[in-house]
Design a protein that fits this description.
With 268 residues, this protein is α+β, with helices and mostly antiparallel strands. The chain folds into two domains: 63 residues, Winged helix-like DNA-binding domain superfamily/Winged helix DNA-binding domain (Arc Repressor Mutant, subunit A, Orthogonal Bundle), CATH 1.10.10.10; 171 residues, GAF domain (Beta-Lactamase), CATH 3.30.450.40. The strands form two sheets. A six-stranded antiparallel sheet has the order 5-4-3-8-7-6, with helices on both faces. Strands 1-2 form a two-stranded antiparallel ribbon. A hairpin with a 2-residue loop joins strand 3 and strand 4. It is elongated and about 65 Å long.
Length: 268
């Protein structure tokens, strides 16, 4: 090599097998909240962009990854390994401070729940002595169609997915329960019109009222938070606190998505 001649950068050798390349891409996603673009995957794996794109498409088709408006993330197949689909530790850790703040500021019972087919699954419940009067428990379930928690999440799903999850024979819990699909879809439209705020009074349990909003990832709702009081509780007053809490939790869980949204807004 002549003096002054630039030395070409040494590029890492590409893994020889497809399995190794697929593993390399999956290893680029350290957690369920990681979102990567095609360019970021190619950079992290040192794979050619065309090769990365081809393998990403295969992983999408097989359910190992899923695609959203801001890139790729781990799919249901990857999350199921080792119980990953049910691992809510990160969600609960991020949400815990916000749940406590809501309880302190309002004096109401606070729930954190996820959607499990046509039901809500309670992950956390915080409250003072009045919490004992709320007929819910951590680890328990309630019908999604007649709870504010459930409606807050169902409202951001496609109508056909809502129908598939809740089924046609909606369970009547009280005399106020909306127990038909057309009525449910009207309620979900109201949730969207209120910017994601779901309100329910006496539909799941008599004399219990709830207000809830969903924690949303780019691909859809991942959980919801609710405040619970008696039927006379002025839920509309505390609704904005719930909306702000889920906004902050979503930003903490998906910081790269929040950053990109901010850049998009600044460029308008």
């Amino acid at each position: 090599m002549s003096v002054g001649q630039a030395e070409a950068p040494v590029r890492p050798a590409l893994p020889p097998s497809m399995v190794e390349r697929m593993t390399l891409i999956l290893d680029a996603f350290p957690g369920r909240t990681t979102r990567l673009t095609l360019e970021e995957v190619a950079q992290a794996t040192h794979l050619p962009r065309s090769t990365a794109h081809r393998i990403l498409d295969q992983l999408l088709k097989l359910g190992w990854l899923q695609h959203c408006g801001f890139g790729y993330s781990l799919g249901p197949r990857a999350l199921q390994l080792g119980g990953g689909a049910g691992d809510t530790s990160e969600l609960r850790a991020v949400a815990s401070t916000h749940l406590h703040q809501l309880m302190v500021r309002t004096g109401l019972t606070v729930h954190l729940a996820v959607l499990d087919d046509g039901h809500v699954h309670y992950l956390d419940k915080l409250g003072s002595r009045s919490a004992a009067a709320v007929p819910s428990r951590v680890g328990g379930y309630a019908p999604a169609h007649c709870t504010a928690l459930g409606r807050a999440m169902l409202a951001w799903l496609a109508p056909e997915e809502v129908d598939q999850r809740v089924g046609e024979g909606l369970r009547t819990m009280t005399g106020r329960t909306v127990a038909d699909l057309p009525g449910l879809h009207r309620e979900l439209h109201r949730v969207r019109a209120r910017h994601g705020l779901a309100i329910e009074r006496g539909e799941c349990y008599d004399d219990i009222a709830c207000v809830a909003a969903a924690i949303r990832a780019p691909e859809g709702p991942v959980a919801a938070i609710s405040l619970v009081g008696d039927a006379q509780t002025p839920l509309e007053r505390v609704g904005p606190l719930v909306l702000e809490a889920v906004r902050q939790i979503s930003a903490e869980l998906y910081p790269e998505v929040a950053e990109r949204r901010g850049r998009a807004l600044r460029s308008v």
